[in-house]
Amino acid sequence: MNTHVSTLALGPSWLDPDFLINEFGLYGVLAIVFAESGLLIGFFLPGDSLLFTTGLLTTTGVLDTPLWQTCTLIAIAAILGDQAGYLFGRKVGPAIFNRPDSRFFKQENVQKAHEFFEKHGPKSLVLCRFVPIVRTFTPIIAGVSRMNYRSFLTYNIVGGILWGVGVTLLGAALGQITFVREHIEAILVGIVLLSVVPIVIEVLRARAGTQQTPADRMQDSDVPAPAGRRRHAKR
Fold first, then answer.
1. Average pLDDT, stretch 156-172?
2. Which region holds residue 132: left if phi is over 0, alpha if psi is between -120 and 50, else beta?
3. Taking Cα atoms as reference points, which of 56, 49, 75 lies closest to residue 171?
4. What's the pTM?
5. 45 alpha-carbon distance from chain centroid
6. CA nearest neighbour of 191 among 33, 67, 2, 47
7. Is residue 233 part of a domain?
8. How far apart are CA 101 and CA 131, in angstroms?
9. 116 lies in some domain
10. What CA–CA distance (Å, rounded) separates 67 from 77?
11. How many other CB atoms sit within 10 Å of the CB of residue 3?
12. Backbone φ, ψ for residue 213 (5° rounding)
């Protein structure tokens, strides 16, 4: 690894894919993919940008592992990560919905994943791979919901391959473009900036939520009952 772009000034080092790859290599990439795919503490890690950068640096020669081997190992790490999340959800069960908020855990994230799972069903395990934060909690929700294991495993494998291999190959393909090779430092800085965007959005939304007055919260939670139920109440 003979190339390193100093982008730490843009944010914490764990948001800098280039720093993570240069510091920990492919094994670090695999550990992060595993954690972000199904461990509660992994939702803030840079999954998409990390895979894209891995493919980019593999093509440009910074990483000396063959591309096919890198893609295979990443897909396996993603699949195993979801597997861990599913088993955790089955073991913990509904208690996860009663877990208090902490610095690294927000009930809002669990609720988002639950709604995503309810809306899309089993295919959510494929779709959520491309949605930051949601992809970390969806396999856990699948475990809590006691989703059929064979069905879960099928969608988990499909999603892990499409996301892990697809995003990595996209970075590798762009790395073959002359313009990208000549401006790799600027592109890596752009990737870091994109990594920060979802975190910033979540922080702003959280701050907006804490600034709501009690009256606003009561108004937001005051959902009218269905028409049939209201008619029944009048009787």
1. 93
2. beta
3. 56
4. 0.69
5. 7
6. 47
7. no
8. 22
9. yes
10. 15
11. 13
12. -80, 160
- Pick from 169, 165, 181, 9: which is nearest to 78 by CA? 165
In a domain, 227, yes or no: no
Residues in the chain: 235
The Cα angle at residue 203 between residues 198 and 207, in degrees rounded to 5? 150
Structure tokens at 195: 């990594």
Q: Which residues contact 202 (CB under 8 A, 6 or more apart)?
A: 133
Distances (CA, A) of 189 to 115, 151, 192, 206: 34, 40, 5, 26
Total number of domains in the chain: 1
- Which residue shows structure tokens 């895979």? 51
Q: Which amino acid is at 4?
A: H
Burial (Cβ within 10 Å: 0-12, 13-18, ≥19) of residue 153? middle
Domain residue limits at 111: 8-208
**pLDDT tens across 95-133, in order?**
766 666 655 556 776 677 777 777 777 788 888 888 777
Contact 159, 135 (CB under 8 A): no
Classify residue 52: in a domain, yes or no.
yes
HSE (CB half, 13 Å, CA atoms) of 99?
18
User: What is the spatial distance between Cα 84 and Cα 157, in angstroms, rounded to a whole number?
Assistant: 13
Provide the residue type at 115 as one letter: E
Query: What is the spatial distance between Cα 95 and Cα 145, in angstroms, rounded to a whole number?
Result: 12
